[in-house]
Amino acid sequence: MGNLAITGREPLFTPCTPKGCIELLLRAGVEITGKKAVVIGRSNIVGLPTSLLLQRHHATVTVVHAFTENSKQVTCEADIVVAAAGLPNLVRGDWIKPGAVVIDIGTTPVEDPSCEDGYRLVGDVCYEEAVSVASIITPVPGGVGPMTVAMLLLNTLDAAKRILNFA
Fold first, then answer.
1. What is residue 148's three-state secondary structure?
2. Whole-angstrom Cα distance, residue 95 to residue 93?
3. Is Oxidoreductase a UniProt keyword of this protein (predicted)?
């Protein structure tokens, strides 16, 4: 984590989910440089490394957490919102600045008798409300999850290259 935070240093491996989020933004053609980004959640595995990666891409990053006052107001100003709090439907449509890009990392099982397994996965963002406000939004499931798997494979490939002394 320290190497991720220090300019000019590279971590041995970048955590897969944050790495996947940045890759999603880049592949979608989202301009990160100079944009206001809000990361909701500050866990060591997702929130913190995501905020550091966004800073590496020259975004102005604010981290919102359980003790942040006016979380809604702070989030409303963001061009990029990354929700990683683990609280289903925390971020409502009125939290999103029109045209903002929303990356929903949260996946929480919520009881739903109409589903085959008796539950469904719900993100941290209320998709039904946010989809009409955001310019881009990742679904749950099927958004960040596959990117996490892809980045795990990339990290595995990088590890094999290191062991075999490939460039």
1. helix
2. 5
3. yes
54-88 pLDDT, tens digit per residue, is: 999 999 999 999 999 999 999 999 999 999 999 99
Helices (H), 79-138: 127-130
* Cα angle 167, 11, 152; round to 5: 75
CA-based nearest residue to 37, from 123, 97, 125: 97
Handedness of CA 26, 86, 132, 92 (dihedral sign): negative
On whether the CB atoms of residues 149 and 23 are closer than 8 A, the answer is no
Q: Please check whether residue 132 is in contact with residue 100, taking contact to mean a CB–CB distance below 8 angstroms.
A: no
Q: List, for residues 91-104, the tens digit of each pLDDT value.
A: 999 999 999 999 99
Tally of CA atoms within 13 A in the half-sphere of 51 that contains its CB: 18
Determine if the pTM surpasses 0.90: yes
